[in-house]
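User: Please work through this fold.
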Amino acid sequence: MLREFDLAETEVHVPGAKRGDGLEILHGRAAALLAFDKPNDAIQDLDRLTSIRPGFGPAKMLRADARERLGQFDQAARDCLLASRAMVQSKDNTEYFERLQSTVAMGQHFVRETLADAGERERVFEVTGEGIARRREIDLADLLQDGSSRKREAIAMIKKTRELLEKDRLDYEAGRILDIDSAKQKRERARATAEKSRTARLERRRQEEAELKARREAEARRKEEEKKQKETDMQLMEAELMAAEEASQRTSEAKAAAKAAEAAAAEAEDEAELAELLASRRGRSRQRER
C-alpha cells in the first residue's frame, strides 16, 4: 500500500487559484480522505476540482490513486497519463508518482491475465448514488452466478500483493538505513583509528626528533670535550717539550761547565808542574854556581 504520508507531501497549492475559490480546500480534503482510506469521497472532491480547473495535474494524480484503490485500473492509468502531462514533478512527487504508475500497471496486468474484469473492463461508474447502486447490482449478479466476485477477489489479491511489496520496500528501507548507520559507524571507527594512528605517528616523530636532537647535542658536547682535551694535551706536550729542552740545556751547560772546570784544573796542574820544573831547574843552576 502506498504510504499515507506521501499524500501529505504532494503539492497542495493550486496554480492560478484565487483566494476563496475553494480549490486548495478541495485538494487538501481529498488528500486527507484518501489518507483515511475513503477513495470514493476523495474522488467526488477531485472531480469537482478538475471540473473547475481541468489542467491541474496533482488532482489527477490523487484521483488515479483513489481509482487504483477501487480497482479502476484503466481509469487510474488514464489519470496518471493526464497527470504526467499536466504537472511538473518534484523529487518527492516523482517517487510517489512512479510507485503509483507501477501499481496501476500491475493491477491492469493482473486483471487482464485473470479475466477478472471480463465484460466490465470498459465500464465506468459515476461516483454518485446511482453509479454506486449499479456497481453493487453487478457485484450481486456476479455473486449469484459464480458464488463470488472475481473482480473483488482480484482487487483483494492485488491489495495483498501491494501490501507485501510495500512491506518489502519498508524492510529494504529499514535495511538500507541500518546499512547506512553501520557504514557511518565504520567510517567513524575508521576515522577514530586513523586519528589515533596519526596522533601516535606524530608522537613517535616528536620522540624521534627529541632523541635525534639529544644525540646531536651529546655528539656536539663530545666533540667539544675532545677538542678541549686535544688542546689540553697539546699544551701539556708543549710544556713537556719546553721542560725537556730546558733540562737538556741545563745539562749541556752543566757538562760544559764541568769540562771547563776540568780544563782549568788540568791547566792549573800543568802550570803547577811547569812551575815546579822551573823551580827545580833554578835550584840545580844555583847548586852549580856554588
